[in-house]
Amino acid sequence: ATAMRDVAQSSFQFPLYECLKLGAAKWMSLDLNQLPTTTSAFCGSIAGMASAVVTTPLDLVKTRLNLRASEVTTVAGRTASQRASCALMASEAREIYRTQGVSGFFKGAGLRGMWMGLGGFIFLGSFETAKNQLINR
Q1: Angle between helices 56-67 and 2-27 (to 10 degrees)
Q2: Rounded mean pLDDT of 83-92?
């Protein structure tokens, strides 16, 4: 569940980040390499927020499975098979839908979006700063 969430989030966040940077550079009439680091960091923040909200259902299922760790990680004393893990994820998703409906999958999406937005600003802003320092050497 963790890998599924991480792959989905990264697959959404990084292309969106690059797309936002291209749009910002075009809007500011700049070459992409001339885009200010703060603008790139804000693009990273928006991409982080959007990807976090979109992938909240996967994160919610993962978190609930982690809270049921004894059932998820062992089946009769052995590591759970991939089939058993998928069955547990599906069971958890059905339970969320049954008790809370579709909105239940997005519990905490706002806070998760804010947290990942801050992370996107810091991480991708730092990345752009380091990249620019290396290019200008």
Answers
A1: 150
A2: 81
